[in-house]
Amino acid sequence: MSAVVHEGDRIAAATATRRRRRSGALTHAILLLGVLAVVFPIWIAVVGSTHDASTIGRGDVPLLPGAEAVENYATALTGGAGRFRSSPAALMLWNSAAMAVLIACGKISISLLSAYAVAFFSFPGRMLAFWTIFLTLMLPVEVRIIPTYQVIVDLDLFDSMAGLTVPLMASATATLLFRQFFLTVPDEVVEAAKIDGAGPLRFFRDILLPLSVTNIAALFVILFIYGWNQYLWPLLVVNDRSLETVVVGLTRMIGNGDAQNEWNVIMATAVLALLPPVAVVVVMQRWFVRGLTETEK
Amino acid sequence: MATLELSGVEKSFGATPVLHGIDLRVAEGEMIVVVGASGCGKSTLLRIVAGLEEPTAGRVRIGGRDVTALEPADRDVAMVFQNYALYPHMTVERNMAYGLRIRGLPKAEIARRVGEAAELLGIGALLGRRPRQLSGGQRQRVAMGRAIVREPALFLFDEPLSNLDARLRVQMRAEIRRLQRRLGVTSLFVTHDQTEAMTLGDRLVVMHAGHAAQVATPMEIWARPANTFVAGFIGSPSMNLLEAQLAEEGRAALLRAGPSLRFADGARPGPAGRRLLVGVRPEHLRPVAEGEGGAPLDVSLELAEPLGSESVLHGRLASGEAVTARVPGLVAGVEGALRLSIQASEAHVFDAETGARLDAVG
Questions:
Q1: CA atoms of B173 and B161, how far apart (whole Å)
Q2: For B347, which of A88, B236, B267, B308 is 20 to 30 Å away at the CA?
Q3: In B, what residues contact A, Cβ < 8 A?
Q4: Helices (H), chain B
Q5: In which domain, by residue range, is B332 found?
Q6: Residues contacting residue B339 through CB under 8 Å, at least 6 positions apart
């Protein structure tokens, strides 16, 4: 009797295991499909950047790397491509990096300070200030682009790094984020610092900033990518080729059909344009994840 | 080390009054415990002394200096918070040194003070750790250390023991008392725990609804509570308050439950029939022995709680009033009648209207 029961148990267990394995295989298949869908275009770009112009020009889409990688990347970095000879990618990458870093740092500093004011000080019109900042969330660059353009021209910031970055710095999102974080700092810690004799600036520097490090890192990653991917504003406010960013430059490389596109160099530039954001994410990932998930208290 | 003097300190939050004129003089090196139920204003009082809250009226003087308008940092006070309020990103050492670094003390002096305090508190091995890596008791010590290194005129404690488990609390309580005696720093300690209050304080301030109901030594408060609130608040289980009327010539109280209690120490003022509350601590209600004086009370027993060396009895008098008694030994039977007696010398007499203590005249 008991042997029969055991036998039955064993069969049931085996079936369960098999079922689990089968559903596991299915899960993995779906996940792999997802990964392929994401990776494939990048693979095409990477492969495309290693062939000569005529291979792609013929309309073939090679799936395996070719032998022209070094030449293509060298051309992209130093020469550029397209009918109007875009600026060399090295310069454009530098411009993009400078713009992205300036925007990210500017956004973080401004929003840290404004969040500090809104979260810790009581002054007349505090809530008004807060809601005004909040309202700008509804006004992305695209909506206010004409007045912003006018302001930049009036301030004589056209064709300058300042003109490129300053209008993108004010950030309601980051301000809100920091404010919420600041509100979680226990009152008692604030009071302990007061009794210890820390003035407002000292408290900000010694207590608040170190506590916000993970949040700052997480925001830096997001904002760097935001800055890096800017297209419309740089296109509008910069005519000087020496200030061209890589995202804008990339589209300028693609001609209007009068001449053959140098897809190999374009692909190489595109791959180069991918690398800095990826590097930022990889380097800051540890803090980034901590900043999004963990509060240190 | 300094004196602390509060005169007429009042505080309202908007239209809600929280403190109604507190006067207090704390002598040098004295440990004052402010005790009261939650919402009585005790924390607000402490925060006003610390400078974290501004009084609506009244003055605060520390060491004779009027500090009412000064910032917390300029008052030369150190505070230990309920949640310790350590800086999470700093090591223990930096936590303790932070206040000194801001004040610009030389490095060697800071190191000396931190070292001494760490040794005093037995946290020398933890100096490199962060608060997150410490247990509750260790954090408590660090918070104390942060206060000690400042060598302030005044220590302020805001319920610092209430986040610790029971055993640790008893241990830290004794430690705080020892430290305070040894350092001789004038201290103000806020708690809702009467045991803490009784054991820690040189004097207690019993707070009730924004008033200081009584300011006195622990034994004085226990032996001669100034009003029914203090009588009921200090002592566990709380004092029984029995309804009564003043007899002719004020020489006795006629208990509503039946017997009359002749005052041992003299007459109470007022007309006959004045409504009184007679307070008797549970431990002063004793089973009647042969040939004993005092007023006998017939109690119908409802519940007996044996606590080992003693039992707490809950019962009801003929008048329907509930009484609690603490008697030595174990009481077996749960139900039944019991005769307990009140000694006149152990009874407290209060006015039923105002709740104020009535002492014998002359």
A1: 7
A2: B308
A3: 50-52, 71-73, 77-79, 81-90, 98-99, 102-103, 132, 146, 150
A4: 42-50, 92-102, 107-121, 136-149, 166-183, 194-200, 218-223, 228-233
A5: 237-351
A6: B287, B288, B296, B297, B298, B299
The mean pLDDT value for B250-265 works out to 87
Could you tell me which of B74, B35, B20 has the C-alpha nearest to residue B51?
Answer: B74
Residue B46 sits in the same domain as residue B167:
yes
Q: What is the CATH number of domain A74-293?
A: 1.10.3720.10
Judged by CB atoms closer than 8 Å, whether chains meet at A188 and B73 is answered as: no
CA dihedral over B215, B216, B217, B221, signed as positive or negative: negative
- Predicted local distance difference test score (pLDDT) of residue A36: 94
Per-domain boundaries in chain A: 74-293
Q: What is the mean pLDDT of chain B?
A: 90
Give a yes or no: residue B357 inside a domain.
no
Q: Are B204 and B276 in a shared domain?
A: no
Q: Do B97 and B203 belong together in one domain?
A: yes
The ipTM is 0.83
Model confidence at B362: pLDDT above 80: no
- pLDDT at residue A52 tops 60: yes
Q: Where are the beta strands (DSSP E) in A128-175?
A: none
Q: Decide if A192 touches B, using CB distance below 8 A.
A: yes
Residue of B nearest to A188 (CA): B85
pLDDT exceeds cutoff 70 at A258: no
Provide the pLDDT confidence category of residue A1 given band limits of 50, 70 and 90.
Answer: very low
Residues of chain B contacting residue A191, judged by C-beta atoms under 8 Å apart: 50, 52, 72, 79, 81, 85
CATH number at B271 reads 2.40.50.140
Domain match, B31 and B130 both: yes
User: Mean of the per-residue pLDDT values for chain A?
Assistant: 86
Distance from CA of A59 to the nearest CA of B (A): 59
State percent of chain B over pLDDT 70. Answer: 97
Contacting residues of B for A210, CB less than 8 Å apart: 89-90
Neighbours of B54 (CB within 10 A): 10
pLDDT (tens digit, 9 = 90+) per residue, A194-218? 999 999 999 999 999 999 988 898 8
